[in-house]
Amino acid sequence: MRQTTIIAAKELRDGLRNRWVLAITLLLAVFALTLAFLGAAPTGVVKVSPLGVTIVSLSSLTVFLLPLIALLLSYDAIVGEIDRGTMGLLLAYPVARWQVVLGKFLGHCAILAIATVVGYGVAGLMLGLNGGGDAETWRAFAMLVATAVLLGAVFIALGYLVSATVRDCGTAGGIAIGIWLFFVLIYDMALLGLLVATQGQGIDGSVLNWLLLANPTDAFRLFNLAGTPGVASLSGLSGLAAQVQLRPAAMAGALMLWVLVPLAGTVAVFSRRQV
After folding, report:
1. Nearest to 203 by CA among 248, 240, 251, 247
2. Largest CA distance in the chain
């Protein structure tokens, strides 16, 4: 475990040295603060929680932004080091390949977690100083931040699987963008088209459950937008939540599986790859 920790610390130091942490934190903080204050501006008139509106806005921001940032962090984590010749030097030390993968993964997750907690936390702090919300809404905000980190870990793991499989960084970058487009845009458009074409016939609640869990961004969105009654009413997903009847534990478990399966695949592929 010591080797894994050393590799994770090195990745975190590299992120700090390359200003990755600072850049991501500033980006998330700027967007979060903008959504928090501009999006919550009308709440005093309509008497809804500014924090609840911010959770809805940040959930949409997270679905689009965090997966892209995670893939940019991870797509060349393995193939890039092989191209530069540093992977062979690293494996010359007494370290197993699974430790290399796990250490680099933990380091990149730490970079994303620091940026997300600080960036979104600044928005939450400012809202708290200006009125905030009730205890239930603050719990929903805390779960938003936690699951945002988990969603980022999902796409870091997917980026690692791509990086361990392909032979050059250009191909890895192209596939990473394709993964982002598929899960963030194409999948939901195709699902919506299927529902419209069939008029909902033949797709019962259990099938819809599996279709939603098959996309980590949908599991994240449902967890945060349908899990709390006050937030669900603002997001307009109360009806969908009642139809699919997915428990928060099932959605969180699906996100965990989306981390573990690609990470295990990365270890399996990398263990057989010539460096």
Report:
1. 240
2. 65
Residue 40 structural domain: 2-271
What integer pLDDT is reported at residue 107 of this predicted model? Answer: 94
Average pLDDT of the chain is 84
Residue 192 reports pLDDT greater than 90: no
Specify whether the CB–CB gap between 156 and 236 falls below 8 A.
no
CA–CA distance, 153 with 47 (Å, rounded to integer): 36
- 15-165-107 Cα angle (round to 5): 20
User: Where do we find the tokens 């197993």?
Assistant: 96
Q: What's the distance, CA 270 to chain centroid? A: 23
Check residue 45 and give its pLDDT.
47
d(CA 225, CA 240): 10
* Interatomic CA distance for residues 111 and 12, integer angstroms: 6
**pLDDT of residue 153 exceeding 80:** yes
- Cβ atoms of residues 91 and 275 within 8 Å: yes
What is the count of structural domains for the chain? 1
C-beta separation of 163 from 76 below 8 A: yes
Measured CA to CA, the distance from residue 262 to residue 156 in angstroms comes to 9
